[in-house]
Amino acid sequence: MAVIHELSTVLADQIAAGEVIERPASVVKELVENAIDAKSHEIDILVEDAGLKTIQVIDDGVGIAADEVQLAFRRHATSKIGDRKDLFRVQSLGFRGEALPSIASIADVVMVTSTGGEGQQLHIAGGDVVDQKPAEARRGTAITVKDLFYNVPARLKYLKSLNTELSKIVDIVDRLAFGHPEISMSLTHNGRELLRTAGRDDLRQVIGSIYGMNKVGKMLPIDASDADFKVSGYVSLPELTRSGRSYMSILLNGRYIKNYQLTKAIVAGYGSKLMVGRYPLAVINFTMDPLLVDVNVHPTKQEVRISKEDQLAALTTQAIQSALAPQNLIPDGLTNL
Ligand code: ADP
Ligand code: MG
């Protein structure tokens, strides 16, 4: 008898899920990223019991055609890249074709979608299609995920308290909203609205709805560019700081990423203006040719490789230095003396 055999599709999907879907917040991230890629103007996120009971993401994007509804849930099925060249110039947030099959392999999923005409409803649970039928729907997609990790008890056990899981959801939605001020996003937990952005393409306003307008009043715009990069966004005055680095958000072509060198470059821009152990608030968009970024480093795509990273770090530090230069720090009331 043969010793080696190919794994079943569902098993392969569950293994992929182990990398991509760590906790409820990962589901929220993947579904909202799909909604962003679908060119939505409005994305509503409804969560119950920190996502363990229900995660629902409703968008008004392009929708999925009836004959592709099941294909969307197959591993490595994607509309976002075609050939090898595309992999080196990824413009979308997704491209691996792994999120939907991963989620469906470890939860109960209902998707209602329409490209404009009659809609379709697909029910898929534990990786198996339960049914697909026509459904009334406006253009866009609504995905409801229930019973996350029901068949992965080890993962379920590893989850933290509901409060911690909810804070991770809030955190990821905040960053997605920072990356896309042109989209109106809302987050509702157990019927209570926690966040709503206006979708007016005004980053200052989005930061205001997340950190509070009083904080935005203490942040300065930054703007710098060179031949390869553009750096823009808001950074706090040296008087407004936090004890952790997590209030510095780095967005690369609209994707929230973690990057130690850029975080260091932000802090370096403050020089000796920060007290030891204190960090600024910052929301910074780094815009560049996708050819300069390799996003195919990690399944969650939160780590990327940037060519000419030193050059970008230097530009970032300079942008902050000039925003914080003494002539820009004069309080409003004094400028017209
Ligand atoms: P990826 O995002 O990497 O392509 P996913 O598994 O997340 O992979 O999604 C598979 C495909 O399903 C996408 O490429 C897209 O065509 C389609 N899709 C998923 N979510 C949506 C959505 N909200 N609106 C429209 N199409 C979607
Ligand atoms: Mg995706």
What's this model, at a glance?
With 337 residues, the chain is of the alpha+beta class. The protein has helices spanning 9-20, 24-37, 84-87, 99-105, 153-158, 162-179, 203-211, 213-216, 260-268, 309-323; strands at residues 42-48, 54-59, 108-114, 119-125, 128-135, 140-146, 184-189, 192-196, 219-225, 229-236, 241-242, 248-252, 255-257, 279-280, 282-288, 293-294, 305-306. The site of magnesium ion (MG) has 5 residues, from helix 2.
Shape annotation: globular
- Write the element-wise H/E pattern from the N-terminal end onward: HHEEHHEEEEHHEEHHEEEEEHEEEEH
Give the oligomer, counting copies of the same chain as homo and different chains as hetero: single chain
The strand count comes to 17
Q: Give me the number of helical elements.
A: 10
CATH fold naming of the largest domain: Heat Shock Protein 90
Relative strand content: 25-35%
Q: How far is the N terminus from the C terminus?
A: 90 Å
